[in-house]
Amino acid sequence: MAVKKILHYPNPSLLKTSLEIEKFDENLAILSRDLVDTMYDADGVGLAAPQLGINKRIFVMDCSREDEENDCRIVINPKIEHQSKELGSYKEGCLSIPGITEEISRPKIIQVVYQDLNGGFQRASYDGLWSTCFQHELDHLNGKLFIDHLRPMKKILVKNKMKKSSKKGRE
Ligand code: CO
């Protein structure tokens, strides 16, 4: 069990584009376990490597409901192959932006391809919260945060709120 420290906005690691993973070795398996342990410890539904300061294209997610068994997916080098025109919206939050949640619209259904820990290709279709989470985590690998989806005025309001709350945290 290795619970790591989750970086907070505006740490530079969260704003960088992460690199494609080429080596499917023991180090990658260790990183994936750290991500899973840290995500569950923080009660999150998803966590991407840049949030631990590692700019590699891997994230984990588990959007199973409380009355379901854990269903953790380890997602490496993800790509969205198709997305629906229909949008879905969820109140999103992020472990790297504590205390802020905002309604965000994204494509409702996505078809994706990614690699597993052995480098094998996996295809999947996601809907609902799973789809939102996949897109939110993929954004992290491109240095993008959910607040970047807000309209410009709204984004300024949210950023001011974040500045205030981080000041309070230091007091
Ligand atoms: Co996030």
Summarize the structure.
This protein has helices at 26-41, 128-141, 152-170; strands spanning 46-48, 58-61, 73-83, 87-92, 102-107, 110-115, 121-126.
Structure write-up:
It is built from 3 helices and 7 strands. With 171 residues, the chain is α+β, with helices and mostly antiparallel strands. It has a 5-stranded antiparallel β-sheet with strand order 1-2-3-6-7, with helices on both faces. A two-stranded antiparallel sheet has the order 4-5. The longest helix is centred in the C-terminal third of the chain and has 19 residues, at 152-170. The protein has a single domain, classed as Peptide deformylase (Peptide Deformylase, Alpha-Beta Complex). The termini are far apart. The chain has helices spanning 26-41, 128-141, 152-170, and strands at 46-48, 58-61, 73-83, 87-92, 102-107, 110-115, 121-126. Bound molecules: cobalt (II) ion. Cobalt (II) ion (CO) binds next to helix 2.
